[in-house]
Amino acid sequence: MSPRLLRLTPVVAALVLAGCASVAPDGQRSAVTAHTAGSLPAGSQLADPAPQARAAARAQVAAWLQQPVDADTAVRIALLNSPALEAQVAALGVQDAQRVQALTLPNPTLTLGRFVNAQEREIERQLSFGLVSLITLPWRARWQGWQLEQATLTTAQQVLLHAADTRRAWLRAVAAQQQLQTAQTLHEAAAAGGELARRMARVGNFSKLEQAQELRVQQEAAANLARSRLNAALEREQLARLMGLWGAQADFVLPATLPPLPAAAALRAGDDAEATALRERLDLRALRRELDTTAERNGFARVGAVFGDVGASYSRNTSTERASGHDDITRGWELELPLPLFDWGGAASAGARSALQRNAAQLRETALRARSEARSHWLRYRTAYDLAQQQQTEAVPLARFLQDEAVYRYNGMFISVWQLLAQARSTAQAVATATEAQRDFWLADVDLQLALTGTSPGTPPSPVTPSAAPAATTEAGH
Amino acid sequence: MQRRSFFTGAATAVAAASVSRVAMAALPEPVIQASADTAEPLTPPNGRPYHPVVTLNGWTCPWRMNAGVKEFHLVAEPVVREVAPGFFVNMWGYNGQSPGPTIEVVEGDRVRIFVTNRLPEHTTVHWHGQRLPNGMDGVAGLNQPAIPPGKTFVYEFEARRPGTFMYHPHADEMVQMAMGMMGLWITHPKARHPLIAEVQRDYAFLLAAYAVEPGAATPRVNEMTDFNIWTFNSRAFPAISPLVAKQGDRVRIRVGNLTMTNHPIHLHGHEFEVTGTDGGPVPLTARWPEVTTDVAVGQMRQLELVADAPGDWSLHCHKSHHTMGAMGHGVPTMIGVDHQGLVGKIQKIVPDYMLMGERGMGDMGSMQMPLPDNTFPMMTGQGPFGNIEMGGMFTTFKVRSQLGANDYRDPGWYRHPKGTVAYEWQGAPLDAQAPRQTAPGTAPGAASVHKPESLPPAAGHAH
């Protein structure tokens, strides 16, 4: 290769690069999917706005909705169907297009002029070209690539957050549905107790006061049922929104119960939580990319600031003497160089340096948060498991035991049927509390997954406040 | 001070259990009773002769003669009493049981009683109704220092008056009597007594009440009124032995009351006279016939009758709750309450729920439903015609013509002569148009003085 050709290499490379920069046909969805693959249920895909793909997605969602929607399917539907998520992914496509636009070389300028005076007619042709964009193209291509990757990572985080939100909403909706069942049973029992009290009063075995006391229980149960209904409807609505469902599709069926607690041996160990988070979290990777970009810009900042826009132009001017018709052609090139007289690039350089520092600090801060979140969410996860396990293996059996004993005491006429019902309500409450604990474990599981491999699960849940146990409603027997 | 030693009981119990054998060597061997059955009457092997009593579900304390003195040995200790089959109560008693053994002596006997304390706290014995030196009366602090755990004290006095008496602690007695510490003391007359008849059968028992939570085994010693276990000699029907008599026997029944309320003791089929109290024999002129006598708190009554009517006759406390086993005293009455359509709804939340009490509580006697562990059922007594529907201070007085003089065994159910049992009317049924009380909850013709507004409906908004 001749030396002349070698000198031309960067220019050629830049031209090649510039030529290659094209908009990704799928709006970077596959890049996003690559980042999220490990954290999403198998078969998850993002919405494709192409009309055929849309129709296929609609059919797929409809097929999924034929069955009770489990948590994974809810996430799949949400990814495929949620307009909110689609908007976020589309924004990435916009960014990609902007990148490609930025990498496209500016068109050369052709200046034509025709000037006439008494003696001469001058025709001026000038082809000028901003050199800077050409010279900096390789760098800019690299930065833009990084920036796109960073944007892709950010979008991937959005996808994961949306999936996590959907999963949380699913857990809440199923749990609320379970609580509604409990509330219905409780209300039915309280209504039976209230009716029995009414009949007691009718035949003179209860005073109005005693009847009223049982009536109050019934009213409380009815109010609680109304609240449970509302809660179940709202939680379901939230899930439907995240899954992008409306109309007839919003009548999807949920499983009757939450998934069972995993065996203790299947729980995630906490010893490598921090390392995993530092290695895999997408927000950290995005910040690292940003830091790379800023670091390189830092080196370039002064030069760029001092030299501004270097322009090159080639002129071919023709002067024609009007009298003689003699043409005089002038050819030449022109290089436009700003002089670093006032701005020596100090400000730009300082700014870039600060930006670098800012990004480095942001990365450190995020790493710190990732470590802390990995630890605290693992602790929450583990404690939520222990609490749920305790509720299931200790509290609920204890409540059942209490109820059995209450039945024995009722059998022996030591307590009344209303005291028996009160104990049964307390047992049902224990089951409801256990369901809540089970839900909380799975919620903590979602947060932990996100904290370890995705991004920050958002506002950390408020610190645990040990709540007083609900007051026992049973009266002691005689 | 009492409280403190009560709570440090565990440590002192160990000390009490290790009473020195050397120290015991000079003591009469205490006789420990393992069974709650009624023991054969103890015919006196030595000393002045007498006609022994039968302690219902108890026994008489053997003694030894020591230089003309009758020596007994009572050991105060924690015991587990079988109050009814399968129902055990942690009590404090004497010599293995509560009540303790009956002490039987003869008027004029010199009596020496060794009392060993194996309780976790101090105790004394008060000899209820005895004439004795003030220092032998057994009131802790007043007459003597209390007997510390692990120690043995000696009481010695002369049994001066014939009659029916008892013994019980007079130290922390609130706790100790609530835990069952009591026993009978019978002083027989040394010769024929104008006011004390010769009898062929002589029965004795003490009334005691306990508060035992269903499913628990230790009485609540702080209870003042709401007892649920009503006993003759710490046994509850159907576990109380019957009183057996040969037709024509003169029978004496000695009843003492160590509960916190009075008990009208009622005998069926016979009339009796109260012939004595713990104050002594009642003068003939002061006696009148009765079928029920009220035994007030801390009192003893001697009833006497001629068992001339054969059959199985009830003998019971006439307070109807006292012939019931454990039950909840606050449970509302369910009689006449329509349960239609509600049982299934209640069973949705309590699958094992069964309707009870709608027609009264008589069904309880025949229902076999699981109760808390170690719980004495409300009414389980079975008779030849079905449920007796009682439990507690109830037993039978069984008079038979064919019975040996010293035969105290349960002769089984009475065989009624033909035509002597109530029978079903086979004639025309009651006219359906016969007048009848109106429906419950409405008083016919009564003016309504105060008509409270009806209650608001329950929460229709949830539907």
Automatic annotation (TrEMBL), chain A:
Phylogenetic placement of the source organism: Bacteria, Pseudomonadati, Pseudomonadota, Betaproteobacteria, Burkholderiales
Protein name: TolC family protein
Stretch forming the signal peptide: 1-23
Annotated region described as Disordered, given as residue ranges: 453-478
Species: Comamonas terrigena
Domain of life, per lineage: Bacteria
Keyword check for Membrane: no
Biased composition (Low complexity): 465-478
One MF annotation (Gene Ontology) recorded for this entry: efflux transmembrane transporter activity
Keyword Signal attached: yes
Automatic annotation (TrEMBL), chain B:
Superkingdom to which the source organism belongs: Bacteria
Domain Plastocyanin-like residue range list: 90-191, 218-330
Protein keywords: Copper, Metal-binding, Oxidoreductase, Signal
Disordered, as annotated region: 433-463
Gene Ontology terms, MF aspect: copper ion binding; oxidoreductase activity
GO cellular component, one term: periplasmic space
Keyword Oxidoreductase: yes
PROSITE patterns: MULTICOPPER_OXIDASE2
Entry keyword Oxidoreductase: yes
Signal sequence segment: 1-25
Major subcellular site: periplasm
Subcellular location: Periplasm
InterPro entries assigned to the protein according to its UniProt record, in alphabetical order: Cu-oxidase-like_N (IPR011707), Cu-oxidase_C (IPR011706), Cu-oxidase_fam (IPR045087), Cu_oxidase_Cu_BS (IPR002355), Cupredoxin (IPR008972)
Protein name per Swiss-Prot or TrEMBL: Copper oxidase
Originating species: Comamonas terrigena
